[in-house]
Amino acid sequence: xxxxxxxxxxxxxxxxxxxxxxxxxxxxxxxxxxxxxxxxxxxxxxxxxxxxxxxxxxxxxxxxxxxxxxxxxxxxxxxxxxxxxxxxxxxxxxxxxxxxxxxxxxxx
Length: 108
Fold this sequence. Notes:
The chain is an alpha+beta fold. The protein is 56% helix and 16% strand. It is built from three helices and three strands. It has helices at residues 37-75, 80-87, 93-106; strands at residues 4-10, 15-20, 32-35. It has a three-stranded antiparallel beta sheet, covered by helices on one side. Helix 1 packs antiparallel against helix 2 (80-87). The relative contact order is 0.10. The model has no long low-confidence stretch (mean pLDDT 90).
């Protein structure tokens, strides 16, 4: 007997598949409705896109927090290179170079 694949959308918005190789009628899992393969692919793509957007927003927020921490450390007198290591922020090279040159002139 050939494998048969069924596609489901669940109440909470998730998607699943079930592949069987037995005869007879297959009932969907509780709280799920059977959908087409195309609907499944479209739904999974939408979920993945939404997840990718959430991840990107979280990364942007983390980077902004690192930048804020870096700036606070530099404002408190911590050398930029040390502030970058402490905060995890990587400032643009142009932002560190002038400060490094100024510190060298002051004899640091």
